[in-house]
Amino acid sequence: MKGKDFLSVADLSSEEVLQMVQKAMAMKAEVSARPLEGKQFALLFEKPSLRTRVSFEVGIRQMGGQCVYLSKDDVGLGTREPEEDIARVLDRWVDGIIARVYSHRSLEILSKHTSIPVLNALSDMEHPCQAMADMLTIQEHKGSFDGLRVAFIGDGNNVACSLSLACASVGADFVLASPKDYQMPSPVLEEAKRRAAVNESSVDWVETPAEAVEGADVVYTDTWVSMGHEAEKAERLPIFKDYKVDESLVKGAKSDFVFMHDMPAYRGQEVSDGMIDHPRSVVFDQAENRLHAQKAILAELFSNISNISK
Question: Is residue 25 part of a domain?
Answer without folding.
Answer: yes
